[in-house]
Amino acid sequence: MSAKILFRLAFLLFLSAVVFGFEIINFSISLKYETDQPGDCISTVTGRDLCASVAHCKILSVGCLLVSIGLLVWGAKLENRG
Fold it and tell me: What whole-number distance in Å separates Cα of residue 58 and Cα of residue 13?
């Protein structure tokens, strides 16, 4: 795999991490306005568990960011070798 492709994949994964970060903010706002009590996690509008959604987005955001960094390092090693 060429370094150019790895850099493009890393960029796409970085953008995915940003989108998941935005979703964390979105679900946090929903937690504030769509629940009855401050400690509740179930939305009164959609019936969705917002705390689980925030947790999934955090995992996906950190995962995409770590894989993106790994691809950048791998691409840099390929670039320096060749």
Answer: 14
